[in-house]
Inverse folding.
């Protein structure tokens, strides 16, 4: 029964129609285009990521410490597992939506739990493989390939995500149990999540030397981790020295913890799914007040409510504005440190205005709500479709919401950066103009993407926010627009001042907006009928 359930769950989660929101057999051209775009994004990522780690492998080999690459591999895999499990544990294990369907069936609850955990593990394995493949390739290339070492690597690959799965599952459950009785439990969850991730972000920069390459600056850190965290030490010893004893310690510790977790968490899973996710309900009733608002204002308000009602949605699409505001405020007190962070993340040798424009553009591109907000309507899309409101108005409200989410913070941040870094008035005004038009371009582009690759069938919002084609194309589409503007800057940098270049970039993006808006309006009318 376990394998039958697992097959159903995997097909449900990873079918092409489920992932991309449309039937490839019926829409072959769109399927091919989306597939090529995704392949291109993966190749570009693996190429850039792979080049950095290939170069790092050469450096470590010259230092006589190629085994440190295994620390990079393990920490990156564990970190990715922490993020995925933290956001998916409640929806996948403790509060899964198909409990009412599965509970009456003659299937042992532990079998259902194992199937659910197996699907979650499958996600961890696929994600870890994509992100850590360049690191592993660099290690075996520079250190030499050995069959036994490779087999030990595969075994460690299978067990390393088990510990973060156990720990983060319990942390996610604890957070939901502690906050669900508060009136604003969603807001509290969002704040706590941002605190955790921003804390890790600050610790990462404090532990590294920002004057050096971001990877070489982490060598001492990862070398220290391999000595202080026993499972890392066992894994490195097993793969690099082909130690059977270390492999035994690694496998037995992780598998033992996992078995204990399965046996102990089974009653908790039954309890949480039976009780459901009960939120706070006010006892005092209030008189119902009817207010008349313009249609656009009501739709935008609806988008704000949706945004703050889904923790993962707010954290992912709101990360850009939060980082932008934090760094701009921090620049008032830690100017040199912020400049070093920007130069490390973006590149040395660039003017501070260019660094700021790239960072602001990155923050705008990461605010991609129009690329997924239509999909998040899910099974309620027919209600919106039946309203006496033009499709263009509905989609335009999603675009305006995205602009309102990022643009005010971007403008305030430019003012704060201007004060701390002492930018000229003209430079600040031009950067504001560029931020305004770029946020409009990105928002319209994201809206077009979601119209063509919607995903209305999902069990958990995570599938739309992190796994859908709209999310992937929205983020990489924004990065492509940054590269496009960066290419134009490069061509003009030898012939014009920075102020003149920014003026031309504003004009360039205005010219882009006109055809994009035409496609957006036409797509809104045509696609709504077909969806």
């Amino acid at each position: 029964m376990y394998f039958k359930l697992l097959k159903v769950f995997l097909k449900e989660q990873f079918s092409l129609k489920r992932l991309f929101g449309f039937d490839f057999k019926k829409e072959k051209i769109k399927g091919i285009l989306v597939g090529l775009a995704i392949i291109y994004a993966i190749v570009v990522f693996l190429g850039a990521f792979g080049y950095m780690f290939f170069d790092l492998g050469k450096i470590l080999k010259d230092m006589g410490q190629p085994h440190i690459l295994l620390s990079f591999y393990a920490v990156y895999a564990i970190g990715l597992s922490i993020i995925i499990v933290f956001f998916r544990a409640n929806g996948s294990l403790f509060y899964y939506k198909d409990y009412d369907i599965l509970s009456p069936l003659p299937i042992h609850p532990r079998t259902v739990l194992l199937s659910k955990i197996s699907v979650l593990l499958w996600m961890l394995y696929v994600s870890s493989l994509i992100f850590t493949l360049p690191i592993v390739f660099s290690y075996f290339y520079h250190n030499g390939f050995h069959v036994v070492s490779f087999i030990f690597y595969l075994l460690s690959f299978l067990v390393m995500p088990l510990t973060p799965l156990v720990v983060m599952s319990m942390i996610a459950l604890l957070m939901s149990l502690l906050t669900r009785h508060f009136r604003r439990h969603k807001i509290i969850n969002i704040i706590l999540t941002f605190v955790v991730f921003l804390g890790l972000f600050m610790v990462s920069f404090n532990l590294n030397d920002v004057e050096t390459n971001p990877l070489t600056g982490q060598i001492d850190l990862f070398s220290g981790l391999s000595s202080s965290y026993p499972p890392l030490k066992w894994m490195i010893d097993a793969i690099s020295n082909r130690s059977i004893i270390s492999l035994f310690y690694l496998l037995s510790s992780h598998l033992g913890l996992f078995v204990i977790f399965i046996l102990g968490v089974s009653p908790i899973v039954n309890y949480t799914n039976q009780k459901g996710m009960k939120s706070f309900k006010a006892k005092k009733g209030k008189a119902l007040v009817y207010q008349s608002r313009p249609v656009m204002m009501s739709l935008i308000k609806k988008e704000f409510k949706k945004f703050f009602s889904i923790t993962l949605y707010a954290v992912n699409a709101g990360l850009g504005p939060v980082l932008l505001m934090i760094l701009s405020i921090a620049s008032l007190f830690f100017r040199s440190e912020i400049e070093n962070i920007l130069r490390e993340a973006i590149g040395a040798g660039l003017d501070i205005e260019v660094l700021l424009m790239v960072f602001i553009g990155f923050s705008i591109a990461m605010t991609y709500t129009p690329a997924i907000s239509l999909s998040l309507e899910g099974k309620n899309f027919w209600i919106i479709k039946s309203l006496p409101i033009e499709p263009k108005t509905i989609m335009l409200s999603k675009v305006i919401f995205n602009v309102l989410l990022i643009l005010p913070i971007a403008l305030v941040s430019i003012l704060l950066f201007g004060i701390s870094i002492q930018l000229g008035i003209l430079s600040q005004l031009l950067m504001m103009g560029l931020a305004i038009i770029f946020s409009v371009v990105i928002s319209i582009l994201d809206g077009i993407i979601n119209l063509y690759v919607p995903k209305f069938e999902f069990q958990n919002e995570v599938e739309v926010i992190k796994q859908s084609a709209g999310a992937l194309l929205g983020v990489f589409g924004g990065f492509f627009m940054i590269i496009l503007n960066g290419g134009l800057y490069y061509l003009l940098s030898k012939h014009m001042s920075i102020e003149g270049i920014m003026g031309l970039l504003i004009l360039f993006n205005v010219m882009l907006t006109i055809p994009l808006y035409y496609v957006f309006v036409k797509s809104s009318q045509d696609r709504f009928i077909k969806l």
Observations:
- Residues 22-275 form one domain.
- Residues 205-214, 277-282 have pLDDT under 50 and may be disordered.
